[in-house]
Amino acid sequence: MMLSWIRCTLFKWIVLLTPLALSGCASSDMNQYANEKPQLDLAQYFGGQTTGWGMVQDRFGNVTRRFVVQIEGRFEGDQGILDEKFEWSDGEKQQRIWRLKKVGSHQWSGQADDVIGQATGDISGNVLRWRYTLAVPIKGTTLHMQFDDVMVLIDDQVMLNRAVFSKWGIRLGEVSLSFRKPGQNP
C-alpha cells in the first residue's frame, strides 16, 4: 500500500514539474538567424508610421481579443521612442510609449509605464527577441506577466510577431501580430 502511495505521489510531481523543466528548452538560439535576410535594423523598420493587426489567444487557443495598433517611431542616434495606440475589438483604447536605447551592436533595452523593470532585446539576422514583464489589468486586479516576443522581418514591409506570455513559468497564452509599413503594396 505504501509503495503504491509513493508511486502515485512521484507520478504527480513528475506531471507537475515536467512542463516547467521543458519550458527552458523552448528558448531558441538566436545565432541560428544570423545569416537570414533581410537584416533587421530596428530604427529603420519602426521609424515613421507602422500599422499592426493582432489577436490574443488563451492557453487553449481560443481568441479572446483582437486589436489594431498604430505606431509612430522616432529615432535619433542610439535612442528611440515608439508611440503605440491600440484599438481593441471590445472598444477599449490604450496607449503605450516605449523608450528604447541601443545598448550593443545587436542589443536594445526598453521601458514603458506598464513594463516592470527593463525590457531586453537581441537582434540576429532578421529576428528580434524581445523579453519583458508587463503589468496587465484583468478583472479589477493587475498581473505581472512575462512576455517573450519573437519578431521576424519577412521583407522590407512586413514583420510577424509571436509573443508567448506566462506567469510563474506557466504559459497562459500568446499574441500573434503582423506589422506593415503604410503605403506599401502587398
Q: Which secondary-structure class do the elements indicate?
A: mainly beta
Count of DSSP-assigned helices:
2
Main sheet properties = 10 strands, antiparallel, barrel
The CATH topology label is Lipocalin
Query: What is the end-to-end distance?
Result: 67 Å
What do these coordinates show?
The chain is mostly beta strands. It has a single domain, classed as Calycin beta-barrel core domain (Lipocalin, Beta Barrel), CATH 2.40.128. Helix content is 15%, strand content 58%. The protein is built from 2 helices and 10 strands; from the N terminus they run H-H-E-E-E-E-E-E-E-E-E-E. Strands 1-2-3-4-5-6-7-8-9-10 form a 10-stranded antiparallel barrel. A hairpin with a 2-residue loop joins strand 7 (127-138) and strand 8 (141-153). The N and C termini lie far apart (67 Å).
Keywords, please?
Lipocalin, about 190 residues, about 15% helix, mainly beta, single chain, 10-stranded antiparallel barrel
